[in-house]
Design brief:
Blueprint lengths: L1 H4 L3 E5 L4 H12 L3 E6 L2 H10 L5 E4 L5 H9 L4 E6 L14 H21 L2 E10 L12 H20 L6 E7 L11 H15 L8 H13 L7 E4 L7
Parallel strand pairs: 1-2, 1-4, 2-3, 4-5, 5-6, 6-7
Length: 240
Amino acid sequence: MDELLAGRRVLVIGGSSGIGEATARRAARAGAGVTIAARGASRLEAALARLPAGVTAECMDVEDEAGTAAFFQRQPPWDHVVLAGSATRVGSVRDLPLEDAYAAMQNKFWGAYHVGRNALVAAGGSLTFVSGVYSQRPVVQAVLQGAINAAVESLARGLALELAPRQVRVNTVSPSTTATPLWDRLGPQGREAKFDAMAARLPVARVADPDDIAQAILMVATNRFMTGATVLVDGGDALV
């Protein structure tokens, strides 16, 4: 994989933490020229301090279609674009406030749509989205997230056909619970309890590390025979 990334231009949207940061780190260590993008300048600055030297950062809000278009128009084409970050509130359909539901759709689905619509990717390159296992195994407290993930996966399959004449591949990686800062909101004890419960249920007996997912993202990005695929990296979550 490293030889396929060396010297390539890689954009990781949502690269300021978690799966996106791990993807940026792996790509940079493989010799790619990496740029991370996110909304928050302070989070980007903090991520740059943790990432290898040479990684750069740009502010970008994928919810803003005009801003997303302008971002790509002022950059040369990328070899690989990864959309790794999203922010959504969870809850059952009857309990989740509609404004939170609309915001979740705007962030994760329409964010992916804006990127798919505007990303400039060089011939032979790739666009990779991150969805989630709830598209395969819905749960009561995250029904909308499952629907959004399924929509993102379907969007990627359609884009794989639409962008094929440009020699651009489009894929999706679908993780299960991953040990990212997202879970810090539960507090130390709540986070540990969440991970312990997941580890007891999953066939692999642990939750994912962000690097587990990053490895899969860069695999589909660099595999020149993969397009329109959704790759489950879920520790067997969809099976149990």
